[in-house]
Amino acid sequence: MKYVIEPAKTCGVDVVGTDAKFPVRRIYCVGRNFADHAIEMGHDPDREPPFFFQKNPQNADNSGVFPYPDHSDDVHFEIELVVALKSGGRNIAFDDALSHVFGYGVGLDMTRRDLQGQMKKMGRPWEIGKAFEHSAPMSAFVPASDIGHPNSGEISLWVNGDQRQIGDLNQMIWKLPEMIQYLSQYFEIGAGDLIMCGTPAGVGAIKRGDKMFGLIAGVGELSVDVI
Questions:
Q1: Fewer CB within 10 Å, N- or C-terminus of the chain?
Q2: Is residue 1 in some structural domain?
Q3: How far apart (Å, rounded) are the C-alpha atoms in residues 92 and 42?
Q4: pTM of whole model > 0.85?
Q5: Angle, alpha carbons 55-213-53 (nearest 5°)
Q6: What CA–CA distances, in Å, run from 163 to 1, 39, 208, 215?
C-alpha cells in the first residue's frame, strides 16, 4: 500500500523470553477500579458500570525513564496491571474473554493531575492530563502461557524506597473477563490492544530525580527514573 506521507512507526513493548516486541494498537484504561482509590478521589466505591479512557499507542514506554512533562506541576503515579490482547472482536462472551489474552505486564498511568482536574471542572475530556508523551511506562510483558491469568497478588509502588501504594489484584471491582466483555460491547477490540486495569489507593506526586519501583506478584517489576 502506498501512502502520501511516511506512516508512523508501530510502537512495541518488550516480551520476556524473546527479542520480538508486542505491537501496540490501542490503550484502554479503566477508571476507579479499586474501591479505596475511588474513595481517595472523592467518589462512591459502589459497583457502578465501568468507564474507560484512552492513551495513545505511542505513550507506551519501555525505556525505564520518565521525562517530567511540560505544563504541569502536579504529576502523579498510578501502578496498574497491564493486559495485552492477542485477538479480539465484538460482544465477546465472559467465558471466552481470557482466551484473547497474550500476556501481562506492570505499568504506570502517569497523570498530569492539575490538568486533569481542570478538565473535570469544565466537563471536558481528560486526554490532556492522561495521554501525553511517555505517560505509560511499562515492563516487558510475560506470556499468559508462562504464568496463567493472575486474579490475586500484591500490587505495590515505591518512590525513593518509600512504599506509597499497596493492594491486591483481588480488590479490583471489575475483573479482567468483565472488562474485556464490557469493552467489546462498545468497541471492536483486537490484537495489540492493551488494558490498564486501575490502581489501588496511595497515588501521589513525583518530582524530577525520583526513582519509582513497582511490582505485581507473579507478573513482574518496573523501575522508572524521573528525569
A1: N
A2: no
A3: 32
A4: yes
A5: 15
A6: 50, 20, 18, 11
Residue 158 has which C-alpha cell?
515505591
Specify the DSSP class assigned to residue 176. H
Alpha-carbon distance of 9 to 143, in angstroms, equals 24
Q: 94: domain CATH number?
A: 3.90.850.10
Q: Count of residues for the chain?
A: 227
Residue 112 lies in a domain: yes
Residue 168: all three cell numbers together = 491486591
Kindly state whether residue 91 falls inside one of the protein's structural domains: yes
Strands of the sheet with 111-112, listed across from one edge = 111-112, 75-77, 204-205
H or E, element range at 162: strand 162-168
Residue 123: partners with Cβ closer than 8 Å, 6 or more residues away = none
Distance of CA 123 to the CA centre of its chain: 23
Residues 23-63: pLDDT tens digits? Answer: 999 999 998 898 765 555 555 566 678 889 999 999 999 99
Report CA 165 to chain centroid distance, whole Å.
15
